Amino acid sequence: MSQLVRACGTDEIEEEEVLRFDHEGNTFALYHGPDGNFYATDGYCTHAKAHLGDGIVDEFEIECPLHFGAFDYRTGDATVAPACQKLKTYPVSIQEGAVFIDIS
């Protein structure tokens, strides 16, 4: 069963930007891709637990602000060392101008 949680309005995050979203003790990173789609991952880098909401987005990659490892936020794949463990990704849907993350 899905558990949809409203993360933000579609107008609250610009293309090629990242936004931190916290919900019930969990933290996520929400992305607005250059393709116009929205994506979500766990909020913390798998390498050193820095929050990706403070990172830099370049196309479909998020760069960790601490050691500059990077991930493809569409798939969660680590793309630049020292990041080597995949990020968990979450399905995203748009409803009435809002971005929802399926955190189930």
Automatic annotation (TrEMBL):
Keywords: 2Fe-2S, Dioxygenase, Iron, Iron-sulfur, Metal-binding, Oxidoreductase. PANTHER family: 3-PHENYLPROPIONATE_CINNAMIC ACID DIOXYGENASE FERREDOXIN SUBUNIT, FERREDOXIN-RELATED. The keyword Metal-binding applies. It comes from the Bacteria. The keyword Oxidoreductase applies. This is Naphthalene 1,2-dioxygenase system ferredoxin subunit. GO terms for molecular function: 2 iron, 2 sulfur cluster binding; dioxygenase activity; metal ion binding. It holds the Pfam family Rieske. Coiled coil: none annotated. Signal peptide: none annotated. It comes from Granulosicoccus antarcticus IMCC3135. Residues 5-101 form the Rieske domain.
